[in-house]
């Protein structure tokens, strides 16, 4: 399993941002091996964190190559006051089972 964490600070979002964001989200959900996502906001720092999960790197690579994603990357300074992307292989996850989460599919 792989995760892509997109951490960013917001500037001003416009119609182009919302259109691209929707296209990217729709494509991600249809990409190979997409498992789910979660989002967090840190009110102290103003950072937003979106974490996406895939069974393999194939789906993540499909998303990274999508034209809407490429366009958003090129224009990120219009909407973001900084960003960081973290790609990770998820080796293990555990919990008590009471929270539905994409990593619940992992075998311990």
From TrEMBL:
A single MF term (Gene Ontology): monooxygenase activity
Oxidoreductase recorded as keyword: yes
Keywords: Monooxygenase, Oxidoreductase
UniProt-listed Gene3D superfamilies: 3.30.70.100
Family matches, as InterPro entries: Dimeric_a/b-barrel (IPR011008), Jasmonate_Hydroxylase-like (IPR052936)
Domain of life: Bacteria
Name used for this protein in its record: Antibiotic biosynthesis monooxygenase
């Amino acid at each position: 399993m792989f995760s892509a964490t997109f951490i960013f600070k917001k500037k001003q979002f416009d119609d182009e941002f919302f259109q691209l964001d929707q296209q990217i989200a729709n494509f991600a959900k249809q990409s190979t091996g997409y498992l789910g996502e979660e989002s967090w906001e840190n009110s102290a720092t103003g950072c937003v964190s979106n974490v996406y999960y895939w069974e393999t790197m194939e789906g993540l690579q499909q998303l990274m190559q999508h034209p809407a994603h490429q366009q958003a990357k090129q224009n990120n300074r219009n909407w973001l006051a900084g960003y960081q992307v973290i790609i990770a292989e998820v080796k293990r996850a555990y919990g008590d089972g009471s929270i539905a989460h994409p990593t619940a599919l992992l075998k311990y």
